[in-house]
Design brief:
The complex is a heterodimer of chains A (471) and B (196).
Chain A (H helix, E strand, L loop, with lengths): L5 H9 E3 L6 E4 L2 E4 L5 H10 L9 E4 L15 H17 L2 E3 L9 H7 L8 E4 L13 E4 L2 H10 L1 E4 L3 E8 L8 H12 L7 E6 L1 H4 L3 H9 L8 E3 L4 H7 L8 H14 L9 E6 L6 E3 L7 E3 L13 H14 L14 E4 L7 H11 L9 E4 L4 H9 L2 H8 L2 E2 L20 E4 L14 E4 L2 H10 L8 H4 L3
Parallel strand pairs in A: 3-4, 3-6, 4-5, 6-7, 9-10, 9-12, 10-11, 15-16, 15-18, 16-17, 18-19
Antiparallel strand pairs in A: 1-2, 2-8, 13-14
Helix pairs in contact in A: 2-5, 6-8, 12-14, 12-15
Chain B lengths: L5 E9 L6 H4 L19 H4 L20 E6 L11 H9 L3 E4 L4 H8 L4 E4 L2 H11 L5 E5 L4 E4 L5 E3 L4 H9 L3 H6 L2 H11 L2
Parallel strand pairs in B: 1-2, 2-3, 3-4
Antiparallel strand pairs in B: 1-5, 5-6, 6-7
Classes of the chains: A alpha/beta (471), B alpha/beta (196).
The complex binds iron/sulfur cluster.
């Protein structure tokens, strides 16, 4: 048989109907639901008298509106309404919900993998663009709008045109102190915010194979920031080891059988993609974004560009607008940019491994004067695990706030946001205007780089820290 | 959903690339549990100054953009968050057609599912439209059946591509779920075969 990519394999296996010249009707194996993009979908079902077709393939959580302090008492009336509406909808339609009180509660893209709901070969959707995160397991996972949420609830399927495929090959080995976040920020800086448009990306190469599952999730998470519908990584032993023993993963012989199937999924030797891009992993540096879209980033030893550096009129204008919003002078050294806030959180970088990496740098240090620094674990399980390891103490002793889980300052729908005109080093995924609060200025970085900025008050090269840190 | 066949209307020009859905509808307005009433919040942080007054320097507030129902924008329109509140807000504000060189995939789908036609035209044609519509009323006619877009007086005329499936949906204003439910047997057969 002709060698095939994992994308083609999953696609073919899920086509309920495939007529030439038409989108295919695709079966959905797992539908994750959260409170912001689902109320209108459930309302639609109610109005047309339709049930949820497969509540057993549907799983809900609340994350965007959840406060990270006193999470049980939501004071914002409209947030509360959205949370209550999801609770009522899940009850009425028989969908399992990890509500605010559940030990399984957390950001939707963090709890799916944590519970073992996310598995290789599945088609996974959620009314949220960062659903691409689940691709780290070799699943075909993508974000959908609310009409599509209703469609999946009612039919467990979606009409989709077959995607084009692109291999994103990351050669070589990462230097020490360089992380998954730096890989994905470099890829987007190099190829732009819409190079992935219309494609499903598969990340390959030595640098990718060397990553843990959590790091792979960071990469796949930001596929959407490259404009791609989805991004994935062929499963391997690292994937299977991560999944073993999780709640929704089969046990014993059934697990071994699954692993055998999953192994077959990986892209075949010699399979062809529609496009291929390559980036050298060993040249990647710790990255910092300076602008208002995720492609506007440079290595830590770089400088803020000049509008004239743009390759055409549109790009020049984009740089100029971004610099105005970010209040940055062209030519400024990245290491001279001072921040007032540090946010360690979000579905990109708030898993246990992220907190451990940051804690390594924080341990024994203090947050610089005048900086507000906050850790928001991605889920209640991550929080608990971190507390068992004593990481909360490390952060608290340094002057960080230690919070409950949620989306929090990634988008500031709950009470956590960055005040107007202030600057934040953030481990999240979007530096759009106003994303972390109206007039807030966001610099995207890895957890280690955020930790470094917290201690020094400005961006530093975390690779040199053990040399520069004073007693 | 409301059918769209031929649409004639005034244009608004948004000469910006990478306009993301966080700008189209900022997050503080995502908390409603209804589908309606989002138009008042469209481009909120750009449209209004911090004192709540309209900002006259924002493109949609130009006198020439009053009653615009066709939005002309630059590359990668609707990028970022998958929030369908973005097309809901555009539609509620009065837009039925968008013209841009490229869109984010999810946003594009969300538009067609809500009866908004996102037209893709080559960059040079979009820039021509921008020049024509800048700072003055400029009416276009969009004919979905014939996949054509044209004005009356400047001689602009172009054809555009659209997936035949989406075209049918828009032309007829169909509800996609009822179409899919006609394939119930196929879905059941699939579930039996694959044992999901
Ligand atoms: S953490 Fe941020 S990006 Fe992730 S789901 Fe929440 S709001 Fe979206």
């Amino acid at each position: 048989m002709k060698p095939r990519t994992i994308i083609d394999k999953i696609w073919n296996e899920h086509a309920v109907r495939a007529e030439a010249g038409k989108p295919n009707l695709m079966y959905v194996d797992l539908h994750m639901v959260h409170e912001v993009t689902s109320p209108q979908a459930f309302e639609g079902l109610r109005l047309s008298g339709r049930p949820v077709r497969r509540p057993d393939l549907t799983f809900a959580t609340m994350d965007h509106n959840v406060p990270t302090l006193n999470r049980e008492s939501i004071t914002d009336a409209i947030s509360k309404k959205q949370i209550d509406t999801l609770f009522d909808n899940c009850k009425e339609f028989g969908v399992e919900l990890a509500d605010i009180h559940s030990p399984n509660n957390g950001i939707v893209h963090i709890i799916g993998p944590e519970l073992g709901l996310t598995q290789p070969g599945k088609t996974i959707v959620c009314g949220d663009s960062h659903t691409s995160t689940h691709g780290a397991f070799g699943a075909l996972a993508f974000g959908i709008g609310t009409s599509e949420v209703e469609h999946v609830l009612a039919t467990q399927t979606l009409w989709q045109s077959p995607p084009k495929t692109m291999e994103v090959h990351v050669d070589g080995r990462l230097g020490t102190g360089v992380t998954a976040k730096d890989i994905i920020l470099s890829i987007i800086a190099k190829f732009g915010v819409d190079f992935g448009s219309g494609y499903v990306l598969e990340y390959t190469g030595e640098a990718i194979r060397g990553l843990t599952m959590e790091e792979r999730m960071t990469i796949c998470n930001m596929s959407i920031e490259a404009g791609a519908r989805a991004g994935l990584i062929s499963p391997d032993q690292v994937t299977f080891d991560y999944l073993k023993g999780r709640r929704f993963v089969p046990e014993g012989a059934a697990f071994d059988e699954k692993v055998n199937q999953w192994r077959q999924l990986a892209t075949d030797e010699g399979a062809e993609y529609d496009e291929r891009v390559v980036i050298a992993g060993d040249e990647i540096e710790p990255m910092v974004t300076w602008g208002t879209n995720p492609s506007q980033g440079v290595g830590i030893h770089g400088t803020v560009p000049y509008p004239e550096d743009g390759r055409n009129a549109t790009e020049k204008k984009v740089i100029k607008t971004s610099l105005d919003y970010m209040a940055l002078e062209p030519g400024t050294k990245i290491t001279d940019i001072h921040v007032q806030h540090v946010f360690l959180g979000s579905c990109t970088n708030a898993r246990i491994g992220d907190l451990r990496e940051a804690a390594k740098i924080i341990r024994g240090n203090k947050v610089a004067e005048g900086i507000r620094a906050m850790v928001v674990p991605g889920s209640q399980q991550v929080k608990l695990q971190a507390e068992e390891e004593g990481l909360d103490q490390v952060f608290k002793e340094a002057g960080f706030e230690w919070r409950d889980s949620g989306c929090s300052m990634c988008l500031g729908m709950n009470p956590d946001f960055v005040p107007e005109g202030e600057r934040c080093a953030s481990t999240s995924n979007r530096n759009f205007e106003g994303r972390q609060g109206k007039g807030a200025r966001t610099h995207l970085v890895s957890p280690a780089m955020a930790a470094g900025a917290a201690i020094y008050g400005h961006f530093v090269d975390v690779r040199n820290l053990d040399k520069t840190v004073s007693s | 959903m409301e059918a769209l066949t031929v649409h004639e209307g005034n244009t608004a020009v948004l000469e910006r690339a990478n306009v993301d859905t966080d700008q189209i509808i900022p997050k503080q307005f995502l908390k409603r549990v209804e589908r309606t009433g989002f138009g008042q919040f469209l481009f909120f942080d750009w449209r209004f100054k911090s004192d709540g007054e309209e900002d006259p320097s924002f493109e949609l507030n130009y006198p020439s953009a009053v009653n615009a129902s066709i939005l002309i924008a630059d590359h990668n329109f609707g990028s970022g968050s998958s929030r369908e509140h973005a097309p809901w807000a555009l539609q509620d504000y009065g837009f039925r057609v968008i013209v841009a060189p490229s869109y984010s995939d999810i946003f594009y789908n969300n538009c067609v599912k809500n009866g908004i036609l996102p037209v893709r035209l080559p960059e040079n044609q979009v820039y021509e439209l921008m020049q024509n519509g800048k700072n003055r009323e400029y009416h276009l006619t969009v004919d979905l059946q014939n996949q054509q877009i044209s004005d009356k007086n400047e001689g602009f005329q172009a054809t555009f591509e659209i997936d035949p499936y989406w075209k049918e949906m828009l032309l007829n204003g169909w509800d996609e779920i009822s179409i899919t439910l006609q394939y119930e047997e196929d879905i059941e057969a699939y579930e039996k075969r694959v044992k999901v």
